[in-house]
Amino acid sequence: MIYSLTSTPRDAKHPSEKMVQATMQSYMVGEIETSIEIKAPAQKYYHMLTGKPKDLPEASPDNLQRCDVLEGEPGKVGRILSWNYNLIVARVIGGDLMKEFKNFFLTIQATPKQREPGSVVKCHLRYERIDKRVADPEDILVLFAMMKSSLQGEVEADVEIKAPATEFFHMFAARPQDVSKASPENVQGCNVQGGEMGRVGTLITWNYVLDGKPKVATERIEAVDPKKNMIKLKVIEGDLTKDFKNFIVTIQVTPKQGGPGGVAKLNIAYERIDENVAHPETLLQTGVKMFKDIDEMLSG
């Protein structure tokens, strides 16, 4: 079940021309997504979005104030909706994303669980910023995450890199101590304990900064796949364990086909202690900044 929304200016060019522009300015293009577990059946969640969008403000009044159907029939392609919504993290956008983005695609997919009640809902954003000063739209994912009651969640971001995929992967799998050299504003230090880098079971302690405050996290390597440039780490000690029951970070780097560079994916799967704990969007943004710093060091 997929529900897709497109935000496009009325004077937009043909989609093929826009795609050419996006290719020429790939550094302005990005994709981020998050997945959340819900108790409701996937069919009901899907019909809430496609058939009864006017009921969404009643379900989530803190995030959505109003929804108007301007044109079209429920569930039909071409239907036009107008949303009045708030963005969290002290930022409000007055409903006009096109002031900051040339293209903005929102896709929501609800998938039923196979062997238990409930579903998993994925929110995927694909966008092209007007210029470098426009921030990546992680705030939209915060809005989406706040519209559910489950304590479990998943956030993800893709970062285009100029450095070779293997070298970027090795920064985390073989030489994490160098991360602080690449991104000193975000990471102050890293110590490898009780194991060998790149091996499952090895412990890594990070000293990092979040919202201007020093933090500590100890992670255990859960999985490593050099062929896929993938490493998975689970937080077992530190500040994050005060707010999260589970916190798993997966980094995977995919080389570009037929050219240099690649795409570095940062995925965070988590379970909050309670509803008072914020979703880790700020940490995701910090990770994205760290990825960009590492890329600059490797490709400079």
Automatic annotation (TrEMBL):
Top-rank taxon, per record: Eukaryota
Pfam families named among the record's database cross-references: Bet_v_1
SUPFAM superfamilies: Bet v1-like (SSF55961)
CDD domains found in the cross-reference section: Bet_v1-like
Coiled-coil annotated residue ranges, if any: none
Ranges for domain Bet v I/Major latex protein: 27-149, 150-300
PANTHER family xref list: MLP-LIKE PROTEIN 423
UniProt-recorded name of the protein: Bet v I/Major latex protein domain-containing protein
Source species of the chain: Brassica napus
